[in-house]
Amino acid sequence: MTGQPDQEWGAECTSRGASLGPAILALFLLSPSFSTRALAAGDSVSADMEPYYEWTVKNLAITTPIGGRRGNAARGRLLSTERKKGNCIACHALPIPEAEFPGEIGPPLMGVGKRLSEGEIRLRIVDAKQVNPATIMPGYYRNPKYLKNVKKKFRGKTLLTAQEIEDLVAYLVTLK
Ligand code: HEC
Fold it and tell me: Containing domain of residue 130, as a range?
């Protein structure tokens, strides 16, 4: 673990990322001084207007946390079943008894922390196409600059924030 940041995404970011982002955006859109130019200014913004953090792949893994901070496994567990967020449960079985009707399109994620390293798990969530170009698993943290045919309201955003990616990674590594 040497050389890895031990900082965590702070709790103060949690609810803000989820609820305040859209609220601020709504206020912004409603305000009379709103102009599209202002919004277009930061064209490389990820979900919830967070900056987009670059990542690099080595040996089919991303060893450094996206944005430099580690996630929280409890939040990741929640995200994995949240339909409007990760919605991993739509395709994967998870050891979460209260989550009903998991999908079977992807492999069950039980034991994934034993099969794959943390960095390998991170790459699969960030951009599964790097492992299998034909996969139907969405790339949750691809550079918005290179995404094509994106609906206007999703333009310039990643599907999940860096913190959400790290929360999911922190959760999946516990599945041994
Ligand atoms: C639309 C379906 C779909 C969704 C949604 C989805 N996945 Fe996947 N996932 C797959 C498929 C299919 C694979 C098998 C790999 C392939 O296609 O090459 C996979 C593979 C994986 C793997 C590698 C597992 C292994 O044992 O090799 C991980 C880890 C993973 N997914 C995590 C997630 C997480 C976390 C989420 C939610 C944020 C998620 N997936 C959402 C379809 C999905």
Answer: 11-172
Nearest-angstrom CA–CA distance, 168 and 166: 5
Task: Tell me whether residue 3 is in a domain.
Answer: no
- Could you report the per-residue pLDDT of 117-146, keeping only the tens digit for each? 999 999 999 999 999 999 999 999 999 988
Which among 78, 91, 123, 176 is the best mutation to test ligand 1's pocket, defined by most ligand atoms within 8 Å of the CB? Answer: 91
The conformation of residue 17, written as its DSSP 8-state character, comes to I
User: Using CA atoms, how far apart are residues 113 and 176, in angstroms rounded to an integer?
Assistant: 5
User: Ligand 1, from 75, 89, 137: best to mutate by most atoms within 8 Å of Cβ?
Assistant: 137
The enclosing domain of 77 has a CATH number of 1.10.760.10
CB 173 within 8 A of CB 113: yes
Residue whose C-alpha is closest to residue 66's, from 50, 55, 57: 55
